[in-house]
Write a structure and sequence with these properties.
Length: 648
């Protein structure tokens, strides 16, 4: 393997030397994760010879970046002054907002308006690199403070020496020639097939093992059905080459730190927003387990390690993750930062094989997000979610009108509304809907109390407004934060709950968890359930086995544990409503339209992430498609622990 790697390096070095101009004074070439890094003494060559780097990337089909040799970088205090001179004052950058990572050679610049720091076509970034020798990394300074985001930025700088070692170690498994020809691809369903929850898929080629998602089942409290069944396939975490996370919901990312606990040392690929959100969710899992006295599947140490091992990717960037596998992430429209994973697996039948994993997708624009992308060049097989494969959801505008009408009716009888909600995505969309209804005088301006992780998650949304819908992004660009409407009240002290519930004033209470599996929503439910003036509104999917699903399905006497260990019986006298149209999942029609909208129809469709009825109904619907390209595809409906073999 060392010999093969040396040969690859020799070939790369030859291409670089043939294309990099002598005035660059190249010092060395390094691999850092998926990147080829060219260290130079004189970055000034980029003023006139920037195309040289593009040519190298095009020839090698690799992501290439330029860094400056440490001896040639400007001193940090001088570089800070020069950076402030180079960027517009309107960018909102102060001296304290510029930090230097001396190990990775980066200047981390926190800006209110990152676009002004970047400049037209990245011109300011080039100037900073050329004039200071520091490679700029721009992060948005959000209008809502996020302790987690601040902590991640500082932690990454503090641990940059470890991170550099990790990147170089990861590169040893990426930038080598494949040892074997790929005759087939194996896909093993570890979780999330014929069920919703614990999504995990192992994709194996002759040269690599890649894990797509690794979540837990929120509707089950004990193994083995709570966890993906990696224990049953004879593959240990240290054998896995890469982990790709589609989005930050616990059923897709909740157990990624568990892999590090048991020996995984490789990279995790996700969007930057997903990295931040999943770290927050995983820390919350630990917090809930600690409060409830439940066993913890991992510790904070493993969450921190996962953050250091995460390599953030942008939509549309193609990246090597193994000797024979490249991935590209595409917007999934499900939650902030959610992604579909396109895998190009090389050396299959003389060419390559294109596998698309949708994760969870929404093929419809919402107030919060744009719809899932379909501009995907080629798809031979697709693993597609089926959550609402048997359901036609009402139009979005009807769902919004229904929500507003239920709240209005509850206010008229002087009741209170409890909306248990997922902290990521659904909460922010409901906030936008309520804000609009109040601004348009469709709702009285009553307090909207927000508790749980919603506040911190919303702050993370404000750090990535460019990933939100065009309308919402436009509000941020105009200087308005729609998540800071005057009626929104953050509940920071749990002792305030009793006063909120017992107040004579009507209010809306938004709290986690969205399926009533724990968190403040359950505590509010206990206090509010007996009053017929109140209303409980479900706005997201309720997984089978959760308290939310039981109430939604009609149970009106609920037994819940108290803090003293006793079991209390709660009579549900409050009105119970479920507004389905807000789902971040596509319904039956949208899923079929998504398939029909792909430029190239897949040969195989593998259905997952749905209960059996939903999967079978969707399979029948696909076979009835008016699009002949779709109607005759091979449809596969595996169960957990089934293995599918794909050949070119």
């Amino acid at each position: 393997m060392v010999f093969v790697r040396d040969r690859v390096l020799d070939e790369i070095r030859k291409v670089v030397l043939e294309n990099i101009p002598p005035e660059a004074e190249m010092r060395r070439i390094e691999f850092e994760g998926p990147y080829l890094v060219i260290y130079v003494r004189n970055p000034g060559f980029l003023r006139s010879e920037a195309s040289a780097v593009k040519n190298i990337a095009k020839i090698l089909k690799k992501r290439v970046i330029v860094k400056v040799d440490p001896q040639s970088r400007m001193k940090p205090q001088d570089a800070r002054r020069r950076i402030l001179e180079l960027i517009p004052q309107d960018a909102g950058v102060e001296e304290k907002d510029i930090e230097f990572d001396e190990i990775l050679g980066e200047a981390v610049i926190k800006a209110v308006k990152p676009g002004l720091v970047i400049g037209s076509e990245g011109e300011n970034l080039k100037k900073i690199l050329v004039e200071t020798g520091w490679r700029p990394r721009v992060v948005r300074k959000p209008p809502m403070r996020s302790a987690l985001l601040e902590g991640i930025v500082s932690y990454m700088i503090d641990e940059s020496e470890y991170r550099l070692k990790m990147l170089r170690r990861a590169s040893e498994k990426i930038h080598v020639e494949p040892m074997f020809r790929n005759e087939s691809i194996k896909i093993t369903a570890l979780g999330g097939f014929m069920e919703v929850g614990r999504s995990a898929i192992l994709v194996e080629t002759s040269n690599s093992k890649i894990l797509l998602d690794f979540g837990l089942n929120p509707g089950v409290s004990t193994p083995p059905n709570m966890y993906p069944r990696i224990d049953m396939i004879g593959v240990s975490p240290e054998e896995i080459d890469a982990v790709v996370v589609t989005h930050a919901h616990v059923d897709h990312c909740g157990l990624v730190p568990y892999l590090f606990k048991y020996g995984y040392e490789g990279p995790v690929y996700a969007t930057e927003a997903t990295r931040d959100l999943m770290a927050l969710l995983q820390l919350d899992i630990l917090d809930v387990a600690r409060r409830e006295g439940s066993p913890m599947p991992f510790t904070q140490k493993e969450v921190q390690k996962m953050v250091l091992h995460t390599i953030p990717l942008k939509y549309g960037e193609t990246t090597d993750v193994a000797p024979d596998v490249k991935i590209t992430l595409y917007n999934a429209g499900h939650i902030l930062g959610s992604a579909m994973v396109h895998m190009y697996i090389g050396n299959m039948g003389g060419g390559g094989y294109n596998l698309l994993y949708t994760g969870d997708i929404k093929f419809q624009r919402t107030r919060l997000l744009e719809r899932a992308d379909t501009e995907i060049p080629r798809v031979d097989a697709i693993i597609m979610e089926s959550t609402y494969g048997a359901t036609d959801l009402p139009p979005r505008n009807e769902a919004e009108e229904k929500l507003v009408e239920i709240i209005k009716r509850t206010i008229e009888r002087r009741g209170k509304v409890l909306i248990p909600t997922l902290s990521v995505g659904r909460a922010q969309e409901i906030m936008l809907i309520i804000r609009t209804a109040m601004m348009e005088k469709k709702l009285e301006e009553i307090p909207v109390y927000i508790e749980g992780m919603i506040d911190e998650v919303t702050a993370i949304h404000t750090a990535y407004p460019e990933l939100l819908s065009r309308e919402t992004f436009a509000l941020f660009k105009s200087g308005e934060n729609p998540f800071s409407y005057s009626t929104f009240k953050r509940v920071e002290d749990r002792r305030a709950r009793v006063d909120i519930v017992e107040s004579e004033e009507s209010s809306v209470i938004m709290a986690t968890s969205g399926m009533l599996t724990g968190g403040p929503a359950v505590e509010y439910f206990k206090m509010m359930a007996g009053d017929p003036r109140n209303t409980l509104i479900f706005v997201n999917y309720q997984v089978k086995g959760t308290l939310g699903r039981r109430i939604r399905d009609g149970e009106r006497e609920i037994q819940v544990p108290e803090e003293n260990g006793r079991i209390a019986t709660i009579k549900v006298n409050m009105e119970v409503q479920s507004v389905e149209g807000f789902s971040g999942h596509s319904d039956r029609r949208q899923l079929v339209r998504f398939l029909e909208s792909l430029p190239n129809a897949p040969k195989r469709v593998i259905l997952n992430h749905g209960e059996p009825t939903a999967i079978q109904t969707l399979a029948s619907e696909i076979r009835r498609s008016r699009d002949g390209r779709i109607r005759y595809v091979e449809i596969i409906t595996p169960a957990v622990l089934d293995t599918i073999t794909l050949r070119a």
